[in-house]
Amino acid sequence: MNRDVIIACDFPSAAETMAFLDKFQEEKPFVKIGMELFYAEGPQIVREIKARGHKIFLDLKLHDIPNTVKKAMHSLSALNVDIVNLHAAGTIEMMKAAREGFAGCGHVPLIIAVTQLTSTSEERMQKELLISAGINETIVHYAKNAKEAGLDGVVCSPLEAGMVKGACGKEFVTVTPGVRFAGGDAGDQVRITTPAKAREIGTDYIVVGRPITAAPDPVEAYRRCVREFVG
To answer: Catalytic positions, please?
Structure first.
């Protein structure tokens, strides 16, 4: 698996997104399209960015009954994205249904499951979600469920990527948000690390938003992130 940096394009409109991507004249970075942008602009924004030559991680975190998720994934298959995700908390049956949604499709993206959001601490998970196990144990268990369901990997924080790889194998993909430059603002993330540390841990993809998109020079921030993570 080749490492890559994915830029979280968490903008409220197509105009702001395209203005940001126009800054990249030499690179075509891998980009994440999340709920904010997708719900504002719809599937067309995916088509437009794809037409520009970017790989796309469509981050919609589907979580519903298995049949609904299966049909939703089938609808999304027409967009030819490179990574798509759902919540592992939806059970093995739901995750299997998600893969079935791509049956017969010529292009099947990496299908990955969210274990626990990087904004969730162990204390909150146990107190508010009533999950009594520790957060590391929970994340590894969810990852094993995703593998059993036939998914390609999971979203987890960089701090758990090594444990997930140890439990599910080196080929099981880890996509890790919660990455900040050394000394940077953590924002609303709790379980975070740096690009260099994420590389050392062995994760496959890091998702980086504000440290790049809000930087005075986003292109240089992206290149710094690539240097530190990809090498």
So the answer is: 61
